[in-house]
Amino acid sequence: MDRPAELVPLHYVSLGGHGPEDVVPDPYGRVLTGVADGRILRVHHPGDPDSARVEVLAETGGRPLGLELLPDGDLLVCDADRGLLRVSTGDGTVRVLADSAAGEPLRFCSNAVALADGSVYATVSSRRYSLDRWIGDIVEHTGTGRLLRLAPEGGEPEVLLDGLQFANGLAASADGSFLVIAETGACRLTRYRLTGPRAGHAEPFADLPGMPDNLWREGPDGPLWVALASPRVPALHLLHRTPPAVRRAAARAAVRAPYRPSGTTGVLALDDQGRTVHHLTRRRSGFRMVTSVGAVGDHLVLGSAWEPGVAVCARPAAP
């Protein structure tokens, strides 16, 4: 697509909590999310501002980020403080699946996906910076992000990929033959092949017009939705070409400076060949730092690590 279409806002649903970083629709048209105080929430009727309501499902005791809905209704939760969790949406029970990887604490776990064979894959955004200092990793360009695999029988996760630039969103292809990893710090998506002669290899999947955050696949035959947390920042890309000492000094300054997200928001939908199906954007948006997107009926629901609620926008017509 040559030019982006307008991302049309419809209404806003306040959650009574800050930073719904990931939003995941369930089969009943509800939306699941986690907020900064550790609660896992379910939003009923998000498309109707008059009947929308928020239900508390569980508390992780940490900071939930990426969510993955399992076939039995439970949730995989990447918690930036506690690691990879399984949360019951029935009674709120929280179970730690993994809290270490390669002999070190599993911190800044960002997104996860479960495959049909029972294996779970997860990303770690940074091994150097914690969530509250995330901007430091983006500025320093550390390349300490990881892709992990937790075997069906459990245990400590295996490190499949290292050196990723702020590994973030994660999704599987429709046929389960590869994973797509969002590298926020590099404005790109990377494909990690699971099957075939190139199994275990990573390769470029798509270069993006902004910094990708969470990914969400809309059903087995639907597109892959990508939240763009920020447009590209040319000065940042120039900084990434400087020596490591310069980047480290810039990162130290960045984590101390007040941060305000860009007023430009955007989302993409891609097919499994990396081709753009939809590109929606809005300038001077009142809803900033879109970190996730999911589709519910005729609506798109946007999450944000910055905002105290979710935004509901018009869904584009099929191309």
From TrEMBL:
This is Sugar lactone lactonase YvrE. It holds the Pfam family Str_synth. It comes from the Bacteria. GO terms for cellular component: endomembrane system. The keyword Phosphoprotein applies. Residues 116-195 form the Strictosidine synthase conserved region domain. Keywords: Glycoprotein, Phosphoprotein.
